[in-house]
Amino acid sequence: MALRGKTALVTGSTSGIGLGIARALADQGARLIFNGMATPEQEESVRLELTERSGEISLYWNEDLTRGAQLLPALAALGPVDVLVNNAGIQHTAPVEEFPPERWESILSLNLSAAFYTIHALLPAMNGRGWGRIINVASAHGLVASVHKAAYVAAKHGLVGLTKVVALEQAGRGVTCNSLCPGWVLTPLVQQQIESRAAQEDISVEQARHDLLLEKQPSGHFTTVEQLGQWAVFLCSPACDNVTGTSLPVDGGWTAR
Ligand code: NAD
């Protein structure tokens, strides 16, 4: 219960990696503010689960994070946040000359600009308390590129850059800012890519999953959302008081090549 008394906001935490991180922080006693595009049933089930794990009443922040500067009043209304996890993200794949401009705009807006707005709004309260943890869920694609992912790779490289700037500006002030850079994690976002690969190549979903994994991730294993949750807890621990500005690959060797 190392995070008892702290409030954590995890964006995009109604599913996948964000939910894994929210669960792990709740298990440490943090009060959770969770967010994402959820049905009322999903919202209720996540709210109950996080409240039960943490012992503190969790709050659903029902916000579409692609709204840019319009997010600022809603962020101000949230109150102080001690642990900010910028996780919400989407993907679209296409060659750059065919990439739909509206998809470019929405990916940049959610995967990069939303993190700027949350940090911009929530940092002053962290400074006021002399302690804060900012964890940006970037990607192996924040460190290296792949074809057909122009917007995603640009946004994730941007997020790694933003992480470094915030870390430098906050150095020595009790607030750290780091990126987690996962390789493949089997979540709805990746399942979509597996299914579209199976359809395009006329192969089974199992074969497509196998091919997708081994093409990039030498370990041959998906990273799990539970492992990423434990990384977030570690970054909040005293062991990481002096860890800031890093981009930590959790990628089965993807970026070692
Ligand atoms: P996911 O699709 O399971 O979850 C995405 C979350 O973002 C959901 O809660 C969804 O409701 C929320 N979301 C989507 N649009 C939103 C919006 N406009 N406003 C607010 N919330 C919104 O995906 P995931 O795989 O868990 O991805 C989470 C993060 O991890 C993303 O930033 C992704 O780029 C990153 N990531 C994923 C992988 C992977 O292999 N799955 C690898 C590296 C990085």
Q: Which CATH C-level class of the largest domain is it? A: Alpha Beta
How many H/I helical runs? Answer: 8
Query: How many DSSP E strands?
Result: 7
Distance between the termini: 38 Å
Q: Indicate how many domains the architecture comprises.
A: 2
Q: Architecture of the largest domain, according to CATH?
A: 3-Layer(aba) Sandwich
CATH topology descriptor of the largest domain:
Rossmann fold
Q: Strand portion, in percent?
A: 5-15%
Order of helices and strands: EHEHEHEHEHEHHHE
Low-confidence stretches: none
Mean pLDDT: 97
Structure commentary:
This protein has eight helices and seven strands; from the N terminus they run βαβαβαβαβαβαααβ. By secondary structure, it is α/β, with parallel strands linked by helices. It has two domains: 7-184 and 224-256, Rossmann fold, CATH 3.40.50.720; 186-222. It has a seven-stranded parallel beta sheet, with helices on both faces. α1 (16-27) runs parallel beside α2 (40-54). It is globular, with a radius of gyration of 18 Å. The mean pLDDT is 97. Bound molecules: nicotinamide-adenine-dinucleotide (NAD). Residues 12-18, 35-37, 64-66, 87-90, 110-111, 137, 139, 182, 184-185, 187-190 line the site of nicotinamide-adenine-dinucleotide.
